[in-house]
């Protein structure tokens, strides 16, 4: 047991759970039914700290680090979607989590929904904020991002951009906020990735973000939980932000027409890492979702 960043609150503790050949780290506080927070690239459980603290007393709060991220282990794997799912599945099982409320963002949404679709009897409710949910049309993304993604997907160039020059963490990530983050906050996000080898997990996600239905492997992964979204009575919430990033108007419309028992709620100004920009609105939405469920 360790003591995480003070912004998680005075009662929060850090834990390392053995899974497969490595460990998954999570921050925990409180008791009762679990509320699990999952992040995406290139962040960690640290992204949830302000939301986490505001939900004190609402349940057993658990903010996990994906394998290869934050303080979780960095085994010698490819860090593809199936790898992440295997380690996350093992973590859910090791902690014997049931009646889970999932609070999901970025690729964490894809993994959380994949788990929910295969364990429907263990899910209480789902909240989505800036999720990787469906393939995105390139015309809905900023031209500079599309160009950077093309560069990152190019063998050699991507390794140089993300691994060698560390430009994803030092240039691209800091530019995705409405207001600049403090230097100490940026330093904490960069801390788990001090070397080119340690940044290998960061490279996979931009290369495999589903844009214009490519890569097909990611599209197939996302298709795997659509039937559950379509048919499950589990309460679900989708937050929208302005201007937002991954939740394009087309994907929002798809969710409204497709996802059963879904409430869509505006949550204020934000781009993608909205936990830094609208923690109070997200926490309020989680509280409302718990009341619905």
What order do the helices and strands come in, and which of them pair?
Blueprint: E1 13-19, E2 22-29, E3 34-38, H1 49-54, E4 60-64, H2 81-94, E5 100-106, H3 107-118, E6 123-131, H4 143-153, H5 157-164, H6 167-172, H7 183-190, H8 200-208, H9 216-223, H10 226-231, E7 236-243, H11 249-258, E8 262-270, H12 279-292
Helix pairs in contact: 4-8, 5-8
Can I get a quick summary?
The chain is an alpha/beta fold and 293 residues long.
Query: How far apart lie the N and C ends?
Result: 31 Å
The run of helices and strands is: EEEHEHEHEHHHHHHHEHEH
Computed CA radius of gyration, to the nearest angstrom: 18 Å
- Strand order in the largest sheet: 1-2-4-3-5-6-7-8
Share of helix among residues?
25-40%
Please tally the helical runs, counting DSSP H or I stretches of 4 or more residues. Answer: 12
Classify the beta-strand content into a percent band.
15-25%
Q: How many domain regions?
A: 1
CATH fold title: Rossmann fold
């Amino acid at each position: 047991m360790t003591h995480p960043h003070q912004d998680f609150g005075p009662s929060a503790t850090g834990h390392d759970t053995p899974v497969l050949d490595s460990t998954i780290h999570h921050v925990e506080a409180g008791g009762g039914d679990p509320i699990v927070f999952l992040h995406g690239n290139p962040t960690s459980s640290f992204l949830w700290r302000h939301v986490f603290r505001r939900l004190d007393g609402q349940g057993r709060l658990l903010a996990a680090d994906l394998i290869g991220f934050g303080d979780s282990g960095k085994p010698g794997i490819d860090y593809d979607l199936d790898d992440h799912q295997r380690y996350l599945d093992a973590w859910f099982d090791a902690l014997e989590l049931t009646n889970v409320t999932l609070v999901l963002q970025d690729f964490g949404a894809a993994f959380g929904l994949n788990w929910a679709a295969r364990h429907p009897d263990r899910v209480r409710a789902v909240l989505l904020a800036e999720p990787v949910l469906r393939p995105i049309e390139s015309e809905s993304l900023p031209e500079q991002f599309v160009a950077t993604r093309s560069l990152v997907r190019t063998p050699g160039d991507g390794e140089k951009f993300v691994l060698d020059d560390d430009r994803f963490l030092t240039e691209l990530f800091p530019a995705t906020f409405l207001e600049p983050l403090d230097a100490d906050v940026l330093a904490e996000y960069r801390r788990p990735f001090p070397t080119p080898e340690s940044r290998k997990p960061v490279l996979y996600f931009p290369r495999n973000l589903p844009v214009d239905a490519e890569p097909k492997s990611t599209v197939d992964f996302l298709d795997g939980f659509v039937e559950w979204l379509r048919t499950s009575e589990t309460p679900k919430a989708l937050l929208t932000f302005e201007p937002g990033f991954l939740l394009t108007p087309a994907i929002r419309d798809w969710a409204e027409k497709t996802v059963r028992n879904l409430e869509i709620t505006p949550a204020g100004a934000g781009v993608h890492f909205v936990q830094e920009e609208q923690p109070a609105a997200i926490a309020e939405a989680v509280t409302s979702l718990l009341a619905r469920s």
